[in-house]
Structures are given as structure tokens and as C-alpha cells.
Amino acid sequence: MPRSTHLEGCSTVDGFAIPEHVARALIEHAQEEYPKECCGILAGPPGEVRELHRLTNIDPDPVMRYNADPRELKRVTDEIDEKDWEIVSIYHSHTHTPAFPSQTDVERAYYPEAVYTLVSLADRQDPDLRAFRILDGRIEELPVAMWDPTS
Amino acid sequence: MAVEVKVPTILRKHTDGAKVVSGAGRTLRELIDDLNARHPGMREAILTESGDLHRFINVYLNDEDVRFLGSLETPLSDGDTVSILPAVAGG
Q: What distances in angstroms separate CA B16 from CA B7, B45, B59, one per listed residue?
């Protein structure tokens, strides 16, 4: 499991709360796509992660970049809208560099309302999951809190 | 042609915060011109300097990506919905 603060049963913390099973699914996605970058959306009611939606990375340089398939993106955002949910977070992996937004991540952070979740597989045995706000070119790290919704 | 346009958060600074706005045009290109007249700044947010659709802006007519239709020359009909979604992209 990634390094994190563990707060059982806590869904609203000062930072970014992610259910453990969603974090596991995110890391699984990253491992499956390795050495390519994976990408997707974490959705739920405002501010609360409930579901992970994988998206296909169609960037021509998928080891270094990601760009989600536009048709899938539309389908997933429509599903989210129908539930009156929102895109709580956009996630992707870095397969060779730390879990910190790259210059390209900052330049292409077109969803200022979302938390950007990154997982690094620079050490494949020890994935590192971190979360950020990227606003007007500025990066702010949010503490990640894993929680178990069944407890 | 009255068309409903869904506006993403990052472009709502041009629409006084509105999530959905109305526009008109026989093609997507005309719609973007009309939107820009009503909401200055929209054209340069959607199109490149050379007038093409920005690589990291996705525009959909109803459910389909306009790149699979006629891109900026895609014809519009009364009652259509045009959605704008920025790319989920980075490095």
C-alpha cells in the first residue's frame, strides 16, 4: 500500500480522503498500464470519492504523457452528471519520476476544481500516492487520508 | 438555430459563472463566433491562434466528439446540445 496517513472511518478530513479500495484500484490500474501512464477520474458527491473510472490514455507518447480518450471522458462525465456527482479528482501515474506534478501537469491542469492525484511507480514495489491542487500554476500538496468505508 | 452550450468550470469566468448558456449558429464555427460576441474570451479559449480547435479542448455535439463529425464545420440543428470539456491531460 502507498504511504499515507490512515484515518479509519473518516471521510471528511482536512486534506484529501480516499477510500482504501479506491486507492488499491488506482494503483492496480497504474501497475497494469506500466510503463505507460494510466489516467482516470475519481467521482462522488461534492468532495467525496466514491468511484473510480478508468480512462484510456491516447497520448502518442504514453510513457511520458497522458491524454484521456475524449469519447470515454464524455461518457463518464455524463454518468457523473446524471447522479449529480462531480469529478472530485483526476488521477494519473508517473512511471519513472516522483509523484509530484510535472511542468506539463501544471500547464494542462484544466480542472482547477479537481484534486490531482498522482501515483508514482518509480519504485514499483512501493507505489507512492499523493494529492495536489493545481491553481493558476501553483501547486499545493494535500495530505492524503486513506479510510475504510466498511468500518 | 438555438443551441444549448454546456460550459466547463475553467471557462465560466467568461460566462459570469453560468454552467449552461445559449448560442446560435448554423455550424460550430458560427456558434463559437456567436458565443464570443455574447461572452468575450470564449473564442480564444476554444480555438488556437490559427483558428483550429485547440488540441486540449474537446467539443461534443450531443454525445459525439466533433472531431469525428465535421470539426468546426459540423452543422448544428435547433435544440442541439454542445458540450465543452477540457482534456484530462498532463505528463
A: 11, 15, 20
